[in-house]
Write a structure and sequence with these properties.
By secondary structure, the protein is of the alpha/beta class. It has a domain of 124 residues: 3-Layer(aba) Sandwich (Rossmann fold), CATH 3.40.50. The chain has 14 helices and 14 strands. The strands form 3 sheets. The chain has a 7-stranded mixed beta sheet, sandwiched between helices. Strands 2-1-3-4-5 form a 5-stranded parallel beta sheet. A two-stranded parallel ribbon has the order 11-12. A hairpin with a 2-residue loop joins strand 13 and strand 14. It is globular and about 65 Å long.
Length: 407
């Protein structure tokens, strides 16, 4: 009797699995973890990028969700710490049951959570904001992607900006992590003039020793490769000590909070670089209209569109896979965003159409609001745009965009 009962049980399980497309969570929501910094140096960025993710989920849920189920967002806070980030990723996966993770913003944390938690658990991770070239070399078993351009592009454009500003000798003060290291290395490799680069560590209360050393070589400008709260201290120290009054900034130091902390008059006319969506496309136009309708104005911080794109491609991948299984989603990510297939775009109507086509078995090519989302084998976006912006009149003004493609 026990053998017969066991056989019947196995048979029922087989039928049940087949009925739900090999997905044992039929009817359960698709859960997307959003793992970002909410309480440390990049605390202003977490809520901003979250608005992009939630807009994508809102658009999908308005179109009957994914696999006929609602999509939910579950938040985690890395506190800009590798240890905390790994613990939060584990909580999201093991306790909250997320099927994929969007984030984090810090490259070292992204690499660590994939290596230690997400890849072993079979959970794909897409960062909308990790830009270090070291990201491309991560041991990730194919589970790590990003929707923004590598700093191979931004570093070269930044070097060109320094030359265009007439600087022949510059100093680089950079945060000692993969983001800062990668950006500084690319810049120095592309800059034709003289440069001196010095790293700093987390937790410093003053940067005067590094600033004095950098100024001693006759640098005409300081390149600030850091995060907003760090830059608030060292830019102010550089100005007050009379060591520097000319600056170049990057995406990490593109910050309204920096204006308030340092004073708009000290930043007036200073320029920087950041990944951008480039010239307006049908996708960016639709996204811009949807975002303004909900939030009144477009975001001043970068990576909000890229957060939207990360959520969209994960939802399309789940729909294409017919499953919320992370490995199956991973295997469909490149396909739903690659150059083949029918082009689909951002916005409520665009996402509804994209999901409908995928449900009908049609291959799609999602053209993102922030980038093309065409990936290579390293999970890198192969082509995109780097923007040049300026601190002006107490705000941030976008000036131009330059195209960049990975070799």
């Amino acid at each position: 009797m026990k053998k017969i009962g066991l056989s019947l049980t196995l048979a029922c399980l087989i039928v049940a699995v087949a009925a739900c497309g090999d997905d044992d969570e039929s009817g359960a929501p698709l859960r997307l973890g959003f793992l970002m910094d909410y309480s440390d140096d990049l605390a202003e960025w977490g809520p901003a990028i979250e608005t992009g993710v939630r807009l994508a989920v809102e658009h999908a849920n308005a179109a009957d969700g994914v696999l006929g189920r609602p999509v939910e967002v579950v938040l985690g806070d890395t506190r800009l710490s590798i240890e905390t980030g790994v613990a939060e990723a584990r909580r999201l996966i093991e306790d909250e049951g997320v099927h994929a993770i969007i984030g984090p913003i810090d490259d070292a944390i992204a690499i660590a959570i994939v290596r230690e938690v997400a890849a072993p658990a079979g959970v794909p991770v897409i960062s909308p904001a990790s830009t270090s070239p070291l990201f491309s070399k991560a041991d990730d078993d194919g589970f790590l992607f990003r929707t923004t351009l590598s700093d191979v592009g931004q570093g070269e454009v930044l070097a060109g900006l320094a030359a265009d500003r007439g600087f022949a000798n510059v100093a680089l003060l950079y945060v000692n992590n993969p983001y800062g290291q990668g950006m500084a290395e690319v810049f120095e490799g592309a800059f034709a003039g003289d440069s001196l680069a010095i790293a700093f560590d987390y937790g410093q209360t003053t940067y005067l020793p590094q600033l004095r050393r950098l100024a001693s070589e006759g640098a005409e400008a300081l390149v600030a490769i850091a995060y907003p709260r760090q830059a608030q201290v060292f830019v102010r120290e550089a100005i007050e000590s009379g060591l520097f009054d000319q600056f170049l900034f990057v995406d990490g130091t593109k910050s309204p909070d920096l204006i308030e902390a340092v004073g708009a008059e000290h930043l007036e006319g200073m320029r920087g670089t950041a990944p951008t969506g480039g010239p307006e496309t049908p996708s960016t136009r639709a996204w811009n209209a949807a975002y303004v309708e909900k939030h009144v104005a477009l975001p001043s911080l970068p990576f909000v569109r890229e957060g939207y794109d990360a959520a969209v491609v994960l939802m399309l991948a789940a729909e294409a896979a017919g499953s919320t299984d992370g490995r199956r989603m991973r295997d469909r990510l490149v396909g739903v965003a690659g150059p083949d297939g029918e082009t689909v775009i951002a916005g409520a109507d665009g996402i509804a159409r994209a999901l409908g086509l995928v449900r009908d078995g049609v291959e799609v090519n999602y053209e993102g609001a922030g980038s093309s989302v065409d990936w290579n084998g390293d999970g890198d976006v192969v082509r995109g745009w780097v923007g040049i912006w300026e601190y002006r009149d107490g705000g941030i003004v976008e000036l131009s965009e330059q195209p960049f493609a990975l070799p």
